């Protein structure tokens, strides 16, 4: 074609190797299949990566195109399968039965994809990102490509938290040693999902955790790490919730490890009410995290906690991050104060910061905790023996109701509630 010899032409090839004898600008759009793009790559083509769709993008597309797909269905598909447009924007109908059938069909497809993906395949993909191109088609439902703002850096992540946990449950049976190696050796964005999924397996098993309270003093709002003590968590049941209102008004049962259905749930990744204390867990592999007390007080209010009920917000971090992990406390005026791993010298002059008003009378601020998560190990991925936790709270120091012992609970219970 004469147009291909025109340097002002833009030649777009869709999922097939383009004609290379051309003077046009060549744009190849393809899935990560190297046989399709390798010749263009050899010629020095610039490789850009399209990340999965965000939930907001999927909902915007559904709305603007007037697709006969419910908002709830798009959200459910995103929670299970990640930001993939085709399954998220195709729905059989609006009836409740059709909704459940479509979601079950998606779960079946994802489950089969996970079942045919091995630890060795995931490890090979992480070691050489191009290895994912050579993997089975099913692996692309399990592992997704993420990128940075330049779209030139390619990182691999699990499609969703559900996929990560399903893969981990399967691998724990088929290749436990390989799974442990994968959890302990993962890095970057992939590490975050592995860490969270592993801790969702570990915390419900209970165990002993070493905790070092970090005293949050009034007035100057200084954060000081104190001496270690021991926290015991019991084995517990497991349950899934859609909205925090489901746990309000005393419905957050003792001895149940609650996990939100959506990984996008704000502030916390799980909750455990035990020994009269509501423990809020947030898993992270970051070196520091901000703490928004206003948002936390709102969450405690939604849970219906009174000023007499104790709560902890526990940041669960890998043991290699724990020594240098810092909490950043947000205050009015966007000023921040860090909870460093090293306590300041006694008698040092307090920093000049704005004085905060008292916390609302009906809702107390939770204690802040930094948990040192144990390294993954074989043998069932059990509890937190000799794991470390650092706590921060208002007023006097000490562990308070931190010492908890209970008998083992009944087998785990799970439920999937239809949204909409």
TrEMBL record:
Domain of life of the native organism: Eukaryota
UniProt cross-references to InterPro entries, sorted A to Z: Crinkler_effector
Organism: Chlamydomonas reinhardtii (Chlamydomonas smithii)
PANTHER family noted in UniProt: ATP-BINDING PROTEIN (PTHR33129:SF1), PROTEIN KINASE DOMAIN-CONTAINING PROTEIN-RELATED (PTHR33129)
Protein name, per record: Uncharacterized protein
Region listing for Disordered, in residue ranges: 331-352, 397-420
